[in-house]
């Protein structure tokens, strides 16, 4: 198992740039992969430097289980552009890569 360490504060905002690539408020790029297990949706988000290129408008993106934006809210969670809540399962440095693992909370 990879050793985890302190990754500092998580990003406040993550906006989609193109499929699988998000950008935070500091213009850092994050790669996002969807994981689904037993009906639970997770987003594995890793800070990886990739060229920003042109951002796509939401209407130009194919349908996705992922939101167009996440915003850090109180507690260990994000609220997405669809008003859904995502719990931060972990925020670590793994092998020198900053990683967030978010889990979509069930809606009421």
Automatic annotation (TrEMBL):
For this protein's source organism, the top of the classification is:
Eukaryota, Metazoa, Chordata, Craniata, Vertebrata
Q: Tell me the protein's name.
A: Mature T-cell proliferation 1
Q: Where would one find the signal peptide in this protein? A: none
Entry's PANTHER family?
Answer: PROTEIN P13 MTCP-1
MF annotations from Gene Ontology: protein serine/threonine kinase activator activity
A family per Pfam:
TCL1_MTCP1
Spell out the family assignment given in the record's similarity comment. Answer: Belongs to the TCL1 family.
């Amino acid at each position: 198992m990879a050793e985890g360490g302190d990754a500092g504060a998580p990003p406040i905002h993550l906006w989609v740039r193109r499929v699988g690539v998000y950008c935070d408020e500091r213009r850092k790029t994050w790669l996002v992969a969807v994981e689904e297990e037993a009906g639970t949706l997770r987003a594995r988000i890793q800070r990886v430097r990739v060229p920003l290129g042109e951002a796509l408008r939401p209407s130009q993106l194919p349908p996705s289980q992922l939101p167009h934006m996440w915003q850090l809210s109180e507690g260990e969670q994000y609220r997405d552009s669809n008003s859904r809540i995502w719990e931060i399962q972990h925020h670590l440095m793994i092998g020198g890569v900053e990683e967030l693992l978010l889990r979509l909370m069930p809606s009421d």
